[in-house]
Amino acid sequence: MCRLLYVNSSEEFSVEEYLTKFAEISKRSKEYQGHGWGCAFLQNGNWKFYKNIKPIWEDNLNQFGKTKRLIAHARSAFRDEGIVVENNMPFYDDKYIFIFNGELRGVKIKEEGRIGAEKIFNYIKRFDKGNIKDAINKGTDIIKKKSSYVRAMNFIIADNNYAYVYSFFNEDPDYFTMHKKILDNTILVCSEKFIDEKDWQPIPNKSLMEFKCI
Residue 179 has what pLDDT? Predict the structure, then answer.
């Protein structure tokens, strides 16, 4: 059960500034978020990717410069298994970037992937016929029907123009409710509110939200 972060601004911002806040909530989380982390950020029109097996709060966060879009993930490995950097998110291809937080049991779908989150990413993409929102709705509906229990299935999929935030959970709303903060020139989505910050709003459970790049 992991922590997720998405930031988009019309003005360049320091990656370190937001990663430091994200590291704070990850370190204080009631579930351990130290099984590695990763991020993706735009620079000069291209996505750059970084992953490290260290906890995010032990890494050097001033190495990334500035960006207008940032996606970050701090990992809490299911049953403390598969703790290798290859299993860190974001997962990505030439079109989409994906980060996930949740737990599903008894999932009866066949899909390629090193861990469950990557299988979910690949499975959703099966249904992408040019509209990723339709693919998310169709893919997640089938996954829920073919799972014995879904504790939670929260994720963010981003492409060059949008971020799609999917929220679904059946327990522990204090932990699994994601939050958003919309300012004049910045969109923030995170698993938790930044410490000592106001004006965050909960993202409704059982929802799919679309955020256009600004």
Answer: 98
Q: State the CATH number of the domain containing residue 177.
A: 3.60.20.10
- Angle, vertex CA 167, rays to CA 103 and CA 99, nearest 5: 65
Strand 207-212 with 186-190, pairing: unpaired
Integer Cα distance of 95 and 103 in angstroms? 25
Residue 81 has pLDDT above 80, yes or no: no
Residues of the domain holding 50: 3-101+151-212
Q: Give the number of other Cβ atoms within 10 Å of residue 133's Cβ.
A: 14
Q: What is the pLDDT of residues 43-56, one digit of tens each?
A: 999 999 999 999 99
pLDDT in tens, 113-126: 999 999 999 999 99
Integer Cα distance of 102 and 8 in angstroms: 23
Q: Residues with Cβ < 8 Å from 86, sequence gap 6 or more?
A: 114
Residues 6+ apart with CB under 8 A from 81: none
The first and second tokens of residue 190, run together, are: 């995170």
How many residues can be counted in the chain? Answer: 214
**Model confidence over 137-156: pLDDT tens digits?**
999 999 999 999 999 999 99
In angstroms, the CA 73 to CA 184 distance is 25
Task: Give the integer Cα–Cα distance in Å for 193 and 178.
Answer: 8
